Amino acid sequence: MKRILRGTLLLGIFLLIMTMSAVAFAAPAEQTPALPILVVNTGALNVRSGPGPQFTVVTSVVGGTELPVLGTNPSGTWDLVSTAAGNGWVDIAFTLPRGDFRFIPVVDVLAPPVSVITPPVTIGIPTTNEVPVPVLEPPRIIVNTGRLNVRTGPGPQFSTLGSVPGGTILDGLASTPDGLWYYVESPLGRGWVYGEYTLLRGFFDNFAVIGY
């Protein structure tokens, strides 16, 4: 009986020692590193479209907000984070890091294009008292029929110098008081044409009047 008890005791001691050894030499359980996050450490923090104050603001987050980190700029001063309004960049000086930051990627972002502002064109005001005088177009009389007779006087009773074709431009010299006939410079020489078959171009306000 004593032998049996002794053997049982020895077996129990042996099993206890083996169990403690197994626990002592067991491999430590693999731990998953905590994801990197930034905790906003100011009243409100701007999230920008790029890593710098020159970029536009995407949104603003309040203090205490936890932002998952997606990347960092080459200098490690701005981090790319995820927000409810989309991804953006924050200045890490206003945040507290939490988690494992060893494996976050470096993201290089080009600077935003610089807007070129064209200076306004300044129109100089003449300093002299000279007033520009407009150049007035001289009176022109255009033949507005197939052919038009040029006569020696202002009426059909006068003889003709010949006729000029439609479209001919004649220099106006004067008119009759009633404005029905025009004294012109023509390819045939100076003569009179009937105004009913002409078109007027130019300035006629000071046109000479010849009475017959």
Describe the structure concisely.
The protein is mostly beta strands and 212 residues long. 11% of the residues lie in helices and 37% in strands. Among the domains are: 37-98, Roll (SH3 type barrels), CATH 2.30.30; 140-209, SH3 Domains (SH3 type barrels).
Structural description of this entry:
With 212 residues, the chain is mostly beta strands. The chain has 1 helix and 15 strands, in the order αβββββββββββββββ. The protein has one helix at residues 2-25; strands at 37-40, 44-48, 57-62, 66-72, 78-83, 86-91, 95-98, 140-143, 147-151, 160-165, 169-175, 181-186, 189-194, 198-201, 208-209. Strand 12 and strand 13 form a beta hairpin. The longest helix is centred in the first third of the chain and has 24 residues, at 2-25. The model has no long low-confidence stretch (mean pLDDT 81).
Determine the N-to-C terminus distance.
172 Å
Counting DSSP H or I runs of 4 or more residues, the number of helices is: 1
Roughly how many Å is the radius of gyration?
52 Å
| The CATH C-level class name of the domain at 140-209 | Mainly Beta
Question: Could you please say which CATH topology of the domain at 140-209 applies here?
Answer: SH3 type barrels
Show the helix and strand layout.
Layout: H1 2-25, E1 37-40, E2 44-48, E3 57-62, E4 66-72, E5 78-83, E6 86-91, E7 95-98, E8 140-143, E9 147-151, E10 160-165, E11 169-175, E12 181-186, E13 189-194, E14 198-201, E15 208-209
Parallel strand pairs: 11-15
Antiparallel strand pairs: 1-4, 1-7, 2-3, 4-5, 5-6, 8-11, 8-14, 9-10, 11-12, 12-13
